[in-house]
Amino acid sequence: MFRVSANTIEVKYDKKIILKDLLLHIPDKSISTIIGPNGCGKSTLLKALTKILPYSKGQILLDGQALNSYKTKELAKKMALLPQSQITPAQITVRELVAYGRYPHQGNFGILSSQDREIIDWAISKTKLNDVENATVDSLSGGQRQRVWIALALAQQTDIIYLDEPTTYLDLAHQLELMKFLKQLNEEENRTIVMVLHDLNLAARFSDYMISMNSGQIIKAGTVEEVMTTTNLKHVFQIDAVISKDPYTGKPICLSYNTSL
Amino acid sequence: MAPKRRNSLLLYILVTLLLVFLTFLFSINLGSYHLSLLEVANTLVGHGSDNSILVLFEYRLPRILIALVGGAGIAVAGSLLQSYTGNHLADTGLLGLHAGASFGLIIFMSFFSQSFLYAEMLIPFFAFIGGILAAILIVYLAKSKNRTINTNKLILIGIAVSALFNAITLFLSLRLSDETYSFAASWLLGNIWARDWIHVSIILPWVAIFSLLAYRLAHPLNLLQVGDEFAQTTGISVKYIKNNALLLAVLLSSGSVAMVGNISFLGLLAPHLARQLVGSDYRLTLPLSAILGSIILLLSDTIGRSLFEANPIPAGIFVAFIGGPYFIFLLLKNNRSV
């Protein structure tokens, strides 16, 4: 039940080895979250899994086939990515930007078929952007803008969606709203969701599978209960964490923490 | 907003094509040999005097066509280069591609121009070799360790490479003959020197073919605007598209400037105006940039040769007269928003 797996991969960035002998299986139709300190290689791992960065050793498999043997357009039908930062083209409307997600399914000139239009409609209503679909993306709030990029990824109609720190510029309420939306997407549409998150408690609340990393290697990957332990967090973040139970969800929660001595 | 924009698109195309036609009429009517509009019309439909036929078909028409086609080529090249660098201030002249092309051109003029009857057909190829040399040098020097291109560095290196190639061109031309030197010097000012049908017959298919190839990149270039990583995961082969954009920018700009002289700022001005009018969709801005480039260059050339009859002013000077201040305006606006 693993469509995506990395077998002892090595990834270099400018001759420096960032990921070393990394072994990973992403469970299908679930939410997986990668956590770890700054510079541990989380984003690099996401870039390797999405073929943005090449790997120099080992193999990443997608549906039993080497990732680097896929054509870019074929890959874009199987996986979508929401990168950490995006550039909004000037004056572009929500609908026009979401339509870019249809690129892997289109001819060269981006002419929309009626099926394309239906899927764009669906992506827009799914992300509750109907009211602003003809507004320019510049004019939207941060939370709405993040939903536009997600709608673009949805319009790609991929089974797998990667997100790199999707909650970064959002306030508490919007963070929660986004995570609930991803959960719904996972439950109702069986999408496999893989993301990098900084907020441990959000990760613990919404993940089925957690991957903790440090220095380019996976320290522990498993269920939330297996990863959110004092020993593991000490190992990964060099912190002494107080782990308790979330009264709303029953999931482990990090109440407070201190620098580990 | 989108439907409104779509409707106005047709209007823009009609209005700009009408503008091209008016500029054409304006230009064909003006010159040291005075022709009335009626005479022009009569001549165009085949009822002209020997003199008006000579003036119109041998002097004005080829020159007008070269200005229109060259202007379009430079504008499309500018658009492509802006996409390649991810910077709306990029211009094929500022980045040194024109200087590279001039080097190729001067080599041709010095050693091959008399080699056979239709040797002038080779001009765009020589200019292209010069242009691609400059492009390779600039891109190689501007690449940082992690293989990304720093835009500020690119522009500074472009200026340096530009100075280097211009120096070589002037040095070579000075060594060769007074004639070559005055040709090179007036070329640098943006003088439309190519005025014969043979030049039309080579520049027209050159710009037409490469502009059509560039149009195939229009939609991928749209997606590139959202960032390389995002474009990659939406199915764009980023490297392939970018390299093609650069190659076509060099082909179009070298071929065009070889004929119309060193026209700077046009590749910046035309795409910018196009974006102001129809937004950021390359499928719309590429053709509109081409039309605007044509109009601006033809107008500049017409004004330069008709208002200052005794000592015509090169078109490049008029383009720079508008383009220079516009560039400064954009620079200031850009600084404020960052």
From TrEMBL, chain A:
Membrane topology category: Peripheral membrane protein
CDD domains: ABC_Iron-Siderophores_B12_Hemin (cd03214)
Keyword ATP-binding: yes
Compartment(s) of residence: Cell membrane
A cellular component annotation (GO) from this entry: plasma membrane
GO molecular function: ATP binding; ATP hydrolysis activity
Database matches in SMART domains: AAA
Keywords: ATP-binding, Cell membrane, Ion transport, Iron, Iron transport, Membrane, Nucleotide-binding, Transport
Domain ABC transporter: 4-240
GO biological process, one term: iron ion transport
UniProt cross-references to InterPro entries, sorted A to Z: AAA+_ATPase, ABC_transporter-like_ATP-bd, ABC_transporter-like_CS, P-loop_NTPase, Siderophore_ABC-ATPase
Key word Cell membrane present: yes
Chief place where the protein resides: membrane
Name of protein: ABC transporter ATP-binding protein
Species assigned in the record: Lysinibacillus telephonicus
UniProtKB/TrEMBL annotation, chain B:
Topology of this chain in the membrane: Multi-pass membrane protein
UniProt keyword Cell membrane, yes or no: yes
Main location class: membrane
Transmembrane segments: 9-28, 64-81, 93-116, 122-142, 154-177, 197-215, 245-270, 282-300, 312-332
Gene Ontology process terms (BP): siderophore-iron import into cell
Location(s), subcellular: Cell membrane
This protein's UniProt keywords: Cell membrane, Membrane, Transmembrane, Transmembrane helix, Transport
Statement: the UniProt record of this protein carries the keyword Transmembrane: yes
UniProt xrefs under Pfam families: FecCD
GO MF entry, a single one: transmembrane transporter activity
One GO location term (cellular component): plasma membrane
SUPFAM superfamilies (alphabetical): ABC transporter involved in vitamin B12 uptake, BtuC
Entry similarity comment: Belongs to the binding-protein-dependent transport system permease family. FecCD subfamily.
Protein name: Iron ABC transporter permease
